[in-house]
Amino acid sequence: MEKKLIKPVVHDNWVTPIVVVKKANASARICANFSTGLNNALLLHQHPLPLRWKSLLRAIRFLTGQVSGGAKIDIENVPWTMQFRAFLRKDEKHSYYISCACSLISPEFVLLAAHCFDGVKNGAVLSITYNTSKKEWHLNATDVKQRVTEHRHDRTNVFIHPNYNSETVVFDLALIKLSHPLKTPPFQPICINCGAANKFQNGTAFVSGWGQLEDTCKRSSTSSKVLMGRYAKLINCQKESEAEGQICVEPNILQHGDSGSALLASNGTAFVLIGVHSSGICNTKSNESVEALYTPLDKEWIDDITGFNCPV
């Protein structure tokens, strides 16, 4: 039998990311999560959330297609989810931007994929937008004076993981420190978990995004204009994909445009954020998806930048 040719495919349109945890000296988490209990009730931690969560969870139970073909989710139901945009270049007719999803991890920090900054020059203006059906909020992340750093500096507002490699897309993690803390509501961080990737293998996950509508590895200009979500299976990564240390999700779930999105998985009692969508594996002959790859969270790096104590 002819061996299938498989190679990594890095998605260059981004969307949906992450959220976090408790400070080292905090007595309780200030975050939200999904319950995995029979009644699908939302576990609340300090800040109550709207009852819309219950309706959202009931709807997600019946999703069947990939994210972009699943059920519509009002972003008010996932109040950690935001959109990131950075200017790249312009010509006589057009301006070009990188667009990505990001997630609120605390009142001051959002988490996203490091590859969202590929091609972004120092000094570029970043914007983070939270869209609701009622109002649009623009969060100014200020000009990027020093874009890449391995340490915490007073004037640095963008932190890209020091081990990020754009060729292999390992450690595909970045943090942005906002120019001012956000108040809830409408914003609400979600609980995160920095456990090892193999801790969550062969379980159930929740994914969402604004990716393309076609079930194919071919790039399409047709993307979802609304946030979509569904349950998905966590799988063992295929050896051919060389996805060591990453978290893999069943094929045909994530498409172009979903990169950077958050991966929520069960910690036994609730769904918590465990990874960021980084890339996908495609069969180059059939153009069929093999698996979606997520970067797990790095506890030491997140704790050092934010001052949190990310649970494992």
UniProtKB/TrEMBL annotation:
Domain of life, source organism: Eukaryota
Domain Peptidase S1: 67-307
Protein's UniProt keywords contain Disulfide bond: yes
Alphabetized Pfam families for the sequence: Trypsin (PF00089)
Keywords: Disulfide bond
Family: Belongs to the peptidase S1 family. CLIP subfamily.
UniProt name for this protein: Peptidase S1 domain-containing protein
Species whose genome carries this gene: Heterodera trifolii
Lineage of the organism: Eukaryota, Metazoa, Ecdysozoa, Nematoda, Chromadorea
